[in-house]
Design goal:
The complex is a heterotrimer of chains A (261), B (122) and C (325). Chain A contains ten helices and no strands. By secondary structure, chain A is an all-alpha fold. The two termini of chain A are 28 Å apart. Helix content of chain C is 67%, strand content 2%. The chains are: A mainly alpha (261), B alpha+beta (122), C mainly alpha (325).
């Protein structure tokens, strides 16, 4: 698979895995209005994933390739999403913590990722891949809304009660090290940057830093350090969590490999 | 306006400690999110229509929630949110005084005018 | 039909009651600030809030399958549908609140088990095909019930129902369409669909409620323009519409007595197990504990989030007062 295709897969997998995670709140959110908001967020992400997978299939020119083949019949090592996005909604990082969903983790993750994607989609509007640029145009608008939604909640939680402040701080402390992966160079990203399909992530980093700092300052939260081991999901080396996510997501499709739905 | 503590911040309701947690460590309820009435203008040129209500913690939140709840299928052009308790309404028994005089002024209604069919739609 | 017991009247109520009765007779609308008999208000409050609860609980059996939907298109469709159901719950809580009860109070009634919700959601969804069958049959039955409610005498409820019905037809269509694709698919898919139909058919017929002579609320509700069509009539309409749909699909409806009757112009059908219906409605169904448990858990776990938002709003307001001072 060439680097262009791998990059599209990376963008698509990011959207699908986070969309899958956020959809877990459906029917269980802290308040009914928020159920609808998170469902909208998830629908946006799944929509982005679908467009990107479809575009990848067109680039590949392989008639056997379609969005569902890609989503349902690849194993974890073939996925290229950031590790950040596959983590459970819990600072304890317990894999099947269905009962332990922590809204602070959801919000912190959405905030860190959406802040990145708002900048990235904006830059990708100028991609030499015109279809990717078109997808980026639409995804950018959605990311703007996601940043607002998550940012508003960071404020409410950080500047809310002592308990919400504590939980947000814990969530950020847990997740911040995973954001190193955004800026760690990879062969895939270097290749697409050179070809004009992708962007120079190093240019986005200071802006991401500034925006994250600004919101956290308003929320009264000290930004936790982002040191330590760098996650490697975009290289296909994932945490233990991705396989649980994929198993659940893929089980019906894989039980009927020749079926059409 | 509620009483102020010495640093100028409004004192929290007396049944809850100022950080939202009781001494036992379990959060006490602060109450429920206020109710907001939602008005949507669905298209440029139309007026805002009341379409329902929802609970949100403040105006910005209410606007965002209104977008999620009431404009999912069409691009709402404009949203208004109003705290429900701020809406003043005419009382039904006042209907006679408020509205009956207008019933006499039938020249306000288009059907009063006899337009010949040749003029077309008006 | 017997009129409901009259509420205690003062001499002031009589002209109000007469105006109310006249408006009902003339098929007009009652709005939140209008005078209404206490029993009308409490009946509506119970009906609307229980309708709202049904939408929220209804998110759970189908919501179960969002994560496992076998294609991205179906995942997105199901997520949108379940989100709609949440939205319908919201419109209905909003309509109920116009009658003077707060949502928190209604949720308390639900979580304590005092309030009811549509019992169809107390059955488990055991396969992906259940999602399609719920769209086709459960939403189909709900639409039958809901269309007459668009003409309900209480304005906010009628308007909420118009909004709901507009969105509901997408739900039934997507369910039926996904079943059609499966029925044209592999033997395993066809078996999955037939199994789902076998499990849900009778439960859907029971959704319309017992025959009206056994229902204490029907007579007064009809008089008040709240309930406009009888349970049995709605059930018959549903069966008559659904049998041809089943034939087109190629599924067998699990009722040996189901047969076209040329004399009546309707389908005859077999007996419904009302004991099972009442048992489940009263709390002893397969999933009652799970459904309520999930809602209570979400509500309890979300308390700190709701508190945080409110506390933040109060702090913001206090800051604004300070700055203005």
């Amino acid at each position: 698979m060439d680097m262009h295709q791998e990059y599209l897969l990376h963008l698509a997998d990011n959207a699908l895995i986070l969309g899958q995670r956020n959809a877990q709140w459906c029917g269980h959110a802290p308040v009914l209005e928020e159920d609808l908001a998170l469902a909208n967020n998830s629908l946006d992400l799944i929509g982005q994933a679908r467009l990107l997978y479809q575009h990848l299939c067109a680039v590949r020119g392989d008639p056997a390739c379609d969005e569902d083949r890609l989503a349902y019949f690849r194993d974890a090592p073939d996925y290229r999403n950031y590790t950040l996005l596959e983590l459970p909604h819990s600072t304890a990082l317990v894999p099947t913590a269905a009962a332990g969903r922590d809204f602070a983790v959801t919000i912190a993750r959405n905030f860190l990722y959406a802040t990145l994607m708002e900048l990235l989609w904006e830059a990708l509007c100028f991609s030499s891949d015109s279809q990717l640029a078109a997808i980026a145009g639409r995804a950018h608008k959605e990311a703007q809304y996601h940043v607002q939604h998550a940012g508003d909640w960071v404020l409410r939680l950080g500047d809310g009660t002592a308990e919400s402040h504590r939980k947000l701080v814990a969530a950020l402390a847990c997740l911040m090290p995973y954001t190193q992966e955004f800026w760690t160079p990879s062969a895939m990203e270097s290749a697409v940057q050179r070809s004009g399909v992708g962007v120079d992530m190093a240019l986005l980093e200071p802006r991401w830093d500034a925006q994250v700092d600004a919101v956290l300052r308003r929320a009264g939260v000290a930004r936790p350090p982002a040191g330590g081991r760098v996650s490697t999901g975009k290289l296909g080396q994932h945490s233990e969590h991705l396989d649980f996510v994929l198993t659940e997501m893929q089980c019906v499709a894989r039980a009927h490999p020749d079926a059409v739905w | 306006m509620s009483a102020r503590s010495k640093d100028g911040r409004a004192a929290a309701p007396s049944r809850v400690a100022s950080d939202g947690a009781t001494p036992a460590g379990q959060a006490a309820r602060l109450g429920d999110w206020p109710l907001w009435e939602i008005f949507v203008r669905s298209k440029q040129g139309l007026e805002h229509k009341h379409c329902g209500s929802l609970h949100a913690s403040d105006a910005r939140h209410a606007l965002h929630m209104a977008r999620e709840v009431y404009t999912r299928r069409q691009e709402g052009v404009s949203l208004w949110v109003v705290p429900s308790h701020l809406i003043c309404a005419s009382a039904p028994q006042d209907k006679a005084g408020l509205f009956d005089p207008a019933a006499d002024k039938i020249y306000r209604h288009p059907t009063f005018y006899d337009i010949p069919p040749e003029v077309g739609h008006m | 039909m017997q009129p409901a017991r009259a509420a205690a009247r003062t001499s002031d109520d009589a002209p109000q009651q007469a105006r109310f009765d006249e408006r009902i007779r003339a098929e007009g609308k009652i709005e939140p600030q209008d005078w209404m008999p206490q029993a009308y208000r409490s009946t509506l409050l119970r009906q609307i809030s229980q309708h709202a609860h049904s939408e929220i609980i209804g998110m759970l059996p189908e919501g179960n399958w969002i994560s496992r939907a076998p294609s991205l298109k179906r995942k997105a469709i199901l997520l949108a549908k379940v989100q709609d159901e949440g939205g319908h719950g919201l419109y209905l809580y909003s309509a109920a609140e116009t009658l003077g009860q707060e949502r928190a109070q209604m949720l308390e009634e639900l979580h304590s088990g005092r309030a009811k919700y549509s019992s169809i959601f107390n059955y488990p969804t055991l396969s992906w095909a259940d999602v399609g069958v719920i769209g086709w049959l459960v939403d189909g039955a709900a639409i039958m019930n809901q269309i007459p409610l668009c003409r309900c005498s209480y304005g906010p409820y009628a308007r909420a129902m118009v909004r709901v019905c507009k969105e509901e037809s997408f739900h039934q269509r997507q369910g039926y369409e996904s079943l059609r694709v499966m029925m044209q698919g592999t033997p395993a898919q066809r078996a999955m669909v037939q199994d789902a139909v076998d499990r849900f058919w009778w439960k859907c017929l029971a959704m319309f409620g017992p025959p009206d002579d056994a229902s204490p609320h029907s007579a007064q509700a009809a008089q008040w323009g709240i309930k406009r069509v009888s349970n049995d009539t709605l059930r018959q309409r549903f069966i008559d519409a659904t049998v041809p749909q089943a034939e087109l699909l190629g599924v067998r409806l699990p009722d040996p007595a189901l047969q076209w009757n040329a004399d009546t112009g309707h389908y005859d059908y077999g007996p419904i197990d009302w004991d099972e219906f009442w048992r489940t409605l009263r709390g002893d169904g397969p999933c009652n504990a799970e459904r309520l448990g999930a809602r209570k858990h979400a509500h309890a776990q979300g308390q700190w989030v709701r508190d945080a938002a409110l506390q933040h709003a109060r702090k913001q307001q206090a800051r604004q007062y300070r700055e203005a001072a």
